[in-house]
Design a protein that fits this description.
There is one protein chain. Helix content is 2%, strand content 47%. It is mainly β. The protein has one domain: Neuraminidase (6 Propeller). A 5-stranded mixed sheet has the order 10-11-12-13-17, with no helix packed on it. The longest helix has 5 residues. The protein is globular. It starts with a strand and ends with a strand.
């Protein structure tokens, strides 16, 4: 699965070339051994593999100038849908990752990029553990890390094969939870919303509203709803059955949802009150892993082999 996030423009020490604007990772429930960014309009791109590797390359428009190769390998379990499952950055450029450790527990870590003053070398290291979470299963673990525009850090927790805990509003199972980015690994997360089955497709609008397309593990409804309104948020749409949403982006008054099973890039137009949506024609039929809103109204999405750019 491909995570995409914006980094603030900063010095080369922040990412790659003083022009770094976008960080992309391929991770999550599907391993992609040959990720291939082809036309992402940014000067730097990072790609993570399910097996814990993080790579990065410099881009010039739609041309890959140089592939810098592997800059870090994080220790993860890759059994089932485990692995390096989330990557995000705060507005200040702090980078956080969600991963399933070799002992199969979910963990959120902060990463640091060091270039040591060299133009052609970078090293990404785990700076510290932010939170050590629960034991995971073969699937439906969550682990999506979301750094909001206001600086808050969220992580999704999946069903973990525990429906009783999912239904408990005080339990973190099946919830979006908030972490203190500077807290200790044994901190107690605060529940933000739920219950969810596997909130993996998450996106924030420019006005700070958080949206979730919930991935149902069996035959139940896959729901589109606000992810920042507490317990039992109102559902604004039921996504087509068995879509397996893998990414969500908000572009103006439209919500885009990438479907792994159908490869449709679903499109919904928000009503002015933000409490209902109208289904619109699909944008494309080859969106496999994730979708991201870019500047200028453009949209990037992953086909599993490349990153494509379209204008809705």
């Amino acid at each position: 699965m491909f995570d995409a996030l914006r980094l603030p423009r900063s010095s080369r020490r922040a990412l790659s070339a003083a022009l770094a604007a976008l960080l992309v990772s391929t991770a999550g429930c599907v391993a992609d051994d040959t990720p291939g960014p082809r036309s992402l309009p940014a000067e730097a791109v990072a790609i993570t593999e399910l097996d814990g590797r993080l790579l990065w390359a410099e881009l010039d428009g739609d041309v890959v100038l140089e592939n810098r190769g592997v800059v870090a390998t994080l220790e993860v379990s890759t059994e089932g849908q485990r692995g390096l499952v989330g990557l995000s950055a705060t507005p200040e450029g702090r980078i956080f990752a969600g991963l399933i450790r070799p002992d199969e527990r979910l963990e959120v870590v902060e990463l640091t990029i060091n270039t040591d003053g060299a133009d052609d070398a970078a090293e990404l290291a785990v700076e510290r553990s932010v939170w050590v979470g629960p034991a995971t299963g073969r699937g439906g673990n969550g682990g999506r890390v979301v750094a909001l525009s206001d600086g808050r850090l969220l992580v999704s927790i999946g069903l973990l094969n525990d429906r009783d805990a999912q239904a408990d509003p005080t339990s973190i199972v099946g919830k979006l939870v908030e972490l203190d980015p500077d807290g200790p690994p044994d901190q107690a997360p605060a529940v933000v919303s739920g219950p969810w089955f596997n909130a993996f497709a998450i996106g924030e609008s420019v006005d700070g509203a958080l949206w979730v397309a919930d991935n149902h593990p069996q035959d139940g409804d896959e729901r589109l709803a606000r992810g920042d309104l507490g317990i039992d948020p109102s559902v604004v749409a039921v996504i087509p059955a068995d879509s397996a949403p893998t990414g969500l982006a908000v572009v103006g008054d439209e919500i885009l949802v990438c479907s792994y099973n159908t490869q449709r890039l679903l499109r919904y137009r928000l009503a002015p009150d933000g409490e209902s949506v109208e289904a619109m024609p699909d944008l494309t039929d080859n969106c496999l892993l994730d979708v991201l809103a870019l500047e200028g109204g453009l949209v990037a999405y992953s086909t599993g082999q490349s990153i494509e750019i379209i204008e809705p």
